[in-house]
Amino acid sequence: MDFNTDHFSLLGLPREFRVDAVLLDRRYLEMQSQVHPDRFARAGEADRRLSLQWATRVNEAYQTLKQPLARAQYLLHLAAHDIGSDNNALMPADFLVDQMEWREAVEEARAAGEQHELEHLHHRLKREMLDRYDELAVLLDDRHDLDLAADRVRRMMFFDKLLADIDDAMAECEE
Questions:
Q1: Residue 18 in contact with residue 137, Cβ under 8 Å?
Q2: What residue ranges define each of the domains in the chain, with the CATH number in brackets?
Q3: Cα separation, 105 vs 68, whole angstroms
Q4: Angle between the 45-66 and 21-35 helix axes, to the nearest 10 degrees?
Q5: Which pLDDT band holds residue 41 (cuts at 50, 70, 90)?
Q6: Which residues form the J domain (predicted)?
Q7: Backbone angles phi, psi at 37, to 5 degrees
Q8: What is residue 35's predicted lDDT score, i.e. its pLDDT?
């Protein structure tokens, strides 16, 4: 095995945004069964260390490919396409206004302890994210429009952070 191989090749998957989750899980388990450190417990120090490195590499590949946002970022990275995540000035004003409105709604629901409203916002945002991931699949796999895909990934980074904030607010309400 080659440590320089990309995550898709390592797990024997096509380099595409659309990933067969069942196949991904199966390939991960197959690879782990081959390289897991427990299999090398009686081996020499060098083999045990190499096994640990491979197991770590397989875990990293699996975690990256399992998460749609991380997978999209990784595909853009493989294409040497900068997503410009450090520059929020690239974001359209209407998108940033929408983000502010989302955040205000979350903060109002958090302050009022409105668990039901937070759950509603959570479900609404998840639906929005699923639609955006469908769009990313078309942009990356079908159209190969890396510029627009990078824009959508930047937007998804906002959504991902917002979803985490909603989850935190819901956890606070449950305490």
A1: yes
A2: 7-66 (1.10.287.110), 88-174 (1.20.1280.20)
A3: 26
A4: 170
A5: confident
A6: 6-78
A7: -55, -30
A8: 87
Pull the structure tokens for residue 58: 């397989």
State the virtual CA torsion across 93, 102, 134, 62 in degrees, nearest 10.
110
Distance CA(103)–CA(163), nearest Å, equals: 10
Classify 170 in phi/psi space as left (phi over 0), alpha (psi -120 to 50) or beta.
Answer: alpha
Closest-CA residue to 35 (of 6, 1, 62): 1
* Structure-block tokens of residue 15: 């380099």
Whether 125 and 102 have beta carbons less than 8 Å apart is answered as: yes
Can you give the pLDDT at residue 44?
Answer: 86
Mean pLDDT is lowest, of 45-49, 149-153, 160-164, for: 45-49
Q: Render pLDDT for 83-118 as a digit per residue (tens, 0 to 9).
A: 987 776 678 899 999 999 999 999 999 999 999 999
Average pLDDT (167-173) is 95
* Inter-residue contact 149 to 73 (CB < 8 Å): no
Q: The tokens of 80 are what?
A: 């040497």
pLDDT digits (tens, 9 = 90+) for 47-80: 888 888 999 999 999 999 999 999 999 999 999 9
What's the distance, Cα to Cα, between the start and end of the chain in Å? 48
